[in-house]
Amino acid sequence: MSQRYLVTGGAGFVGSHLVAALLDQGAEVVVFDNLLTGHRAAVLPGATLLTGALEDPDAIEAALARGPFHAVFHFAALSLVGDSMRDPIGYLAANVGNGLRLIDACVRHGVPRFVLSSTAALFGTPDRMPIDEDTSIDPGSPYGDSKWMLERALAWAERIHGLRFACLRYFNAAGADPLGRLGEDHRPETHLVPLAIDAMLGRRAELAVFGTDYDTPDGTCIRDYIHVTDLATAHLAALARLDQGSVTYNLGTSTGHSVLEVIRSVERAGGRPVPHRIAPRRPGDPARLVASPARIMRETGWQPRLASLDDIVATALRWREAHPGGYGG
Ligand code: UDP
Q1: Which protein residues are within 6 Å of ligand 1, measured from CB?
Q2: What is the domain range of residue 196?
Q3: Cα of 255 to ligand 1 centre, how many Å?
Q4: Residues 260-287 as b or e (16 or more Cβ within 10 Å = b)
Q5: Does the residue 298 lie in any domain?
Q6: Residue 195 Cα, ligand 1 centroid: separation in angstroms?
Q7: pLDDT digit string (tens) for 23-46?
Q8: Stated pTM of the model
Q9: Which end of the chain is flanked by fewer CB atoms within 10 Å, N or C?
Q10: Does one domain contain both 123 and 213?
Q11: Residues 219-260: pLDDT tens digits?
């Protein structure tokens, strides 16, 4: 019998790619999403979409009544560091409140496994690279702290109620489904790879490079870009590992790329220049964030398959070329 899963935020960027990976395995998938930032068209036809809000306890009950679920994946959250700095309490109330309501309902319904989308943002500005799971926690934003609070809540839910959990700390998710079914469509878009592609395609005037005076070889920020499909397979690997106990994994490739390197990769993929200008630093951006994924690789055998920046950018470009209006057009 195939397993059934509940995926909150399954109409969003990373969530939709996890739904695809689950469906590709023959699983039954129920997506729970308020469609504020997610897209109906990002939910593949094999999945069941329930439109609802995590603020609404009755909607959560109705979703869990579709079980029993082998696991619940919790992606749905506000996820912009800058917004969280402007509205810290609102961000904490939404992300922590919604997450706690969901965890509590999972415990009451006897859901055995819970997978949390967590973030590199809970490490703040570490001085040690690459960042492994033992790097000290020091969230530099309410967004990062909201995920840390949920990680702590899961530790209690396990200790008291036996809920097995995986906390998966994403570095920079990018790219698009290699089969072309899904892509990245944030509104407004704030992420580097789609913005650089759109500038190259002439869909926006230019890309602003946020700071060239960082302590890095070319002066621009370095990030660890991980293909969204590799992130999805990491979820499956972590899930399988839960039979041996709860896990916390940093998900990246262990390779960092500067903003200028991303621009050059986009130019290689598209054969055209990316118009860009130097802009001031974006507040809160650490110079360098690179993951050590050694633990998940050692414990599960997971490997990123589309690990090169050029592979990531090529899949993202293909989707944006094929979908000029994103999911809307
Ligand atoms: N960035 C940039 N211009 C943009 C958007 C992003 O220079 O228009 C830089 C940003 O400062 C960071 C990197 O690109 O160093 C990745 O930013 P993104 O917002 O994609 O992800 P984050 O690292 O903030 O999660």
Answers
A1: 172, 190-192, 195, 207-210, 221, 223, 259, 282, 285
A2: 192-223+255-290+306-328
A3: 16
A4: bbbbbbbeebbeeebebeeeeeeebbbb
A5: no
A6: 9
A7: 999 999 999 999 999 999 999 999
A8: 0.97
A9: N
A10: no
A11: 999 999 999 999 999 999 999 999 999 999 999 999 999 999
